[in-house]
Amino acid sequence: MTKFLSLLLFFSSLFLFSQKKWKVNFYNEKVGNEISIFADNQEEMPMSAKFTFTTLDNLKSTAGKEVTVVIPANTNQFPITTLSPINPYQKNEFNYTSMVNFGDVTQENYDKDYEYSLPFEKGKTHLVYQGYNGKLSHQNIDALDFNLKTGDSVFAARDGKVVETQDQHNTNCANISCAKFNNKIVIMHFDGSFADYAHLKQKGVVVKIGDEVRKGQLIGFSGNTGFSNGPHLHFAVFLNRIDGKRKYIPTKFKTSTNNATFLEEGKSYTKTED
Questions:
Q1: Cα separations (Å) of 110 from 131, 240, 250?
Q2: Exposure string (b/e) for 123-152, b if CB count within 10 Å is 16 or more?
Q3: Are strands 226-227 and 172-173 parallel, antiparallel or unpaired?
Q4: Cα separation, 93 vs 210, whole angstroms
Q5: Is 129 part of any domain?
Q6: Is the pLDDT of residue 3 over 80?
Q7: Which residue, 133, 171, 174, 189, is the most exposed by fewest CB within 10 angstroms?
């Protein structure tokens, strides 16, 4: 198996969960009778990959026939597995399929006690018009929709690093097919979870990938893009899974009562502090 062929096999499955082309490269190198498979990850966050060998003739893998790995951020030549011939005098062949998603898909633990800041301007009051497991578009999803207007300021609810941004779109519709037009900011927190701020206005992102942001920092402006039937801010915290699904995390927020609370659909909340 040549390096070129292994790249073709990887790219055939790279875009399974995202239309974005992640800066991750897989390749193999042969040393003596052994073939080692490596990964380079140029993203600002860990990337996960599941490898399944569909052909493994006269070869044994140090990782077995199926393995899920987490490749650290900004890492070169991360070892995936090494293939060794069973009989060095016979022909060998291998190929594999792969699934890729961002974050550590093996992670289960996170900070359950963290108190988030409301993601809008201090002194303002906004309605949660769709809450956790909402009937409009949040079935089995722990996400919140705030009734921000187009152009309203959006602030980071927690410290973290910006790992994805999108703000070139100006299209929306009330159908899941428009989700690809979501303008958004994704921030990775220090416990490995992610926050998604979605439906931002066109050119409504004021941070860039790699920025370290603080809770209460301006990051963008609300809008009505993507899978949306009206201006609002969609906010969700999650852990990723290798199959493209998300494990959503209910989050407590500081409110005007100074108590950390889970927000409820149909209620309005005032931000009094960051």
A1: 21, 12, 11
A2: eeebebbbbbebeebbeebbbbbbbbebeb
A3: parallel
A4: 40
A5: yes
A6: no
A7: 174
The torsion angles phi and psi of 183, rounded to 5 degrees, stand at -80, 135
Read off the CATH number of the domain in which 184 is found: 2.70.70.10
- The tens digit of pLDDT for each residue in 139-160 reads 677 889 999 999 999 999 999 9
**Residue whose structure tokens are 């100074």:** 258
- 106-135 tens-digit pLDDT: 999 999 999 999 999 999 999 998 877 656
N-term to C-term CA, the chain: 55
Q: How confident is the model over 192-245, as pLDDT tens digits?
A: 999 999 999 999 999 999 999 999 999 999 999 988 888 999 999 999 999 989
Return the half-sphere exposure (C-beta side, CA atoms, 13 A cut-off) of residue 152: 21
Instruction: Measure the CA–CA gap between 224 and 203, rounded to whole angstroms.
Output: 12
